[in-house]
Amino acid sequence: MNASADSTLRVVRAACPHDCPDTCAMQVSVDPATERVVRIQGRAEHVTTHGALCTKVSRYAERTYHPERVLTPLKRVGPKGAGQFVPVTWDEALADIATRLKAIAARDPEAILPYSYAGTMGLLQGESMAARFFHRLGASLLNRTICASAGGDALAATYGGKVGMHVRHFAESRLIVIWGSHSIASNLHFWTFAQQAKRAGAKLVCIDPRRTETADKCHAHLQLRPGTDGALALALMHELIVNDWLDQAYIDAHVQADGWPALRERALQWPPERAAEVCGLPVEQIRDLARDLGTTKPAAIRLNYGMQRVRGGGNAVRLVALLPCLTGAWRHRAGGLLLSSSGWFGMVRDDAARQRPDLLAGRSPRTINMSTIGDDLLREASPDFGPKVEALIVYNSNPVAVAPESPKVVRGFARDDLFTVVLEHFLTDTADHADYVLPATTQLEHLDLHTSYGHTDVLLNEPAIAPLGESLPNTEIFRRLAAAMGFDEPCFRDSDEALAEQTLRGAVTYEALKASPGWMSLPIADAPFAEGGFPTRDGRVQIDVPGLGLPDHLEPHESVVSAPALAARYPLAMISPPARNFLNSTFVNVKSLRDIESEPIVEVHPDDAAARGLADRAPVRVFNDRGSYHCTARVSTRARPGVVNGLGIWWRKLGSHGTNVNEVTHQQLTDIGQAPCFYDVLVEVEAAG
Ligand SMILES: Nc1nc2c(c(=O)[nH]1)N[C@H]1C(S)=C(S)[C@@H](COP(=O)(O)OP(=O)(O)OC[C@H]3O[C@@H](n4cnc5c(=O)[nH]c(N)nc54)[C@H](O)[C@@H]3O)O[C@H]1N2
Ligand SMILES: Nc1nc2c(c(=O)[nH]1)N[C@H]1C(S)=C(S)[C@@H](COP(=O)(O)OP(=O)(O)OC[C@H]3O[C@@H](n4cnc5c(=O)[nH]c(N)nc54)[C@H](O)[C@@H]3O)O[C@H]1N2
Ligand SMILES: [Mo]
Fold first, then answer.
1. Which UniProt keywords apply (predicted)?
2. Which of 394, 503, 565, 663 is least enclosed, having the fewest CB within 10 Å?
């Protein structure tokens, strides 16, 4: 882009890197006299961004220029976890790391484990050079399940891919069901379209155990018991069937023919009275929602990942995803469902060229599930497990804060016989446990390409400024590590530009993207499934799936129904959705944002607080057999009776008593996708001195 007309500032095309469905198009203004970023704004012409950024990212420069940025390689000098380091040169750090990794790899490369998630969603600074490095090494593979694999795999099992409605068409819906999403906090740019629809007369319904600010602004709020969405979906199907609100022609043409009769029988066992009991909802609310879904056109569901962090999360997503197929809502472009749009990008992404799985050269290393890192770091070698984990290389993630059952994660990271390297911007709880911390660049300092899981545009992020201090892009750190290890394949010398060229193909190439305003849209029909054509083998929506069977409601792992003895000791269900001004554990150390959140809190319903003698704003301890989380009680009807909301995800060291909400979560997995069950937890709360 050219310098803007009214000033001497240099304006650079950028993309928000964060793990959020919105993936905003941004422009970064740099003062050429000082080479400092002075402003970050949303691009007005980008349809979903429409010129607006969230509070967090409009302060991204505060994060980049934060006085506590790690700007040189650091070597640990104190005990693990103490955060005591001295600066070292890149040469010294890389040589020592390579020596340690070579010694382990000579015994067994699978004793080395990468650990990464979506600190940046960038295709280059995520899994590109890093993936090549670990493939060439033959390190253990990581199953990246921590967020979305229950719902994502369930959606793919049903529709054939992670595909759905265009987010912009929600503006034309007459009914919007916001299901397991606090959109104002975590999908703000969808909320804009929902508000447009509301102003045009649409009805908005929220399904969430917490009375969020989003729920406050909807016409109806079904405040169900956590982990009971599958039961609700079955009762909705029951009503669609008995009231003849099905679109039989759509079902006959586009729904798996031998799956529907069996599911129909199952749904007929779920009259609204039964679901009302299981979900803890008034039966009228279920009937009303069924009537709305069955009789309003176009009707759209914004499903989100909040409802799949429970044992039955995968099955529940399958059931919810079937609803718009039974009513034929897909016939209209403003009808249907959106959980994720990430599957559409397969048409332009060449992941094999970017990640080079061929470098495994016939080896098939074991896979470790990132969601059980607490247990897996504490495991000894065994025939089932393979070698003990001896080295861990962490990038784009803060597992000590975000992984479930953190007392075990901390013990694992504190192991003296574990060699840990962390690529980071800051000394997070995880970096504090590293042998080496390597300084990484932020989004303002590196090149990247972005796809999205909430819209269907590919975005370009050009570096606005040079790397601060001695920081380097993840790609360059892995390039240098590869050289230090003696990996001499030419692909380890590919520049970021070359990686960008190799990553895209077909309708969106890097060349074309560079010539664009900063984003390009995928060619996808307005109403993609109006005439069926789901990306399944036969083009039909799948109900009875090999290996999964028919979808059903599953009780949570930890509930009064499934675990009555445990519930007698720990009677409160706990969910831990994000605090609005943090992005998972990112931004907790940005003071202006932390000041808005003020302190770690747990919301407790007035009845539950009274029963325990808890006063509003009193210090409390949230606990179970796994750990104890110290925070402040907010006595509030934002919590449902019997459910407490521990808003996440604080850095342990910035929280109370060095704890956060993952002290009490567990490592049991979901029904589909081997994901964590962060919102399927029993606890007790007591006043703390
Ligand atoms: N501000 C902000 N935005 C974010 C994030 C953030 O940390 N902060 N995180 C980003 C990431 S990584 C993700 S994955 C997405 C997450 O965003 P979402 O997919 O929307 O998921 P959550 O925020 O986990 O939960 C959304 C809502 O689901 C509710 N919920 C909890 N349990 C249940 C249940 O059993 N049933 C139902 N129906 N609802 C339930 C929660 O109370 C919460 O209000 O947001 C992204 N955007
Ligand atoms: N109790 C509870 N726990 C949860 C959740 C919950 O709702 N409740 N949500 C879960 C979900 S949905 C998710 S997605 C996970 C998120 O877990 P993570 O993916 O670990 O996300 P963050 O906590 O944001 O940590 C990302 C880190 O990456 C770093 N980073 C960012 N960009 C770069 C870069 O370019 N290079 C390098 N080297 N580092 C970078 C940031 O500084 C930050 O410390 O947490 C999960 N944990
Ligand atoms: Mo996530």
1. Iron, Iron-sulfur, Metal-binding, Molybdenum, Oxidoreductase
2. 565
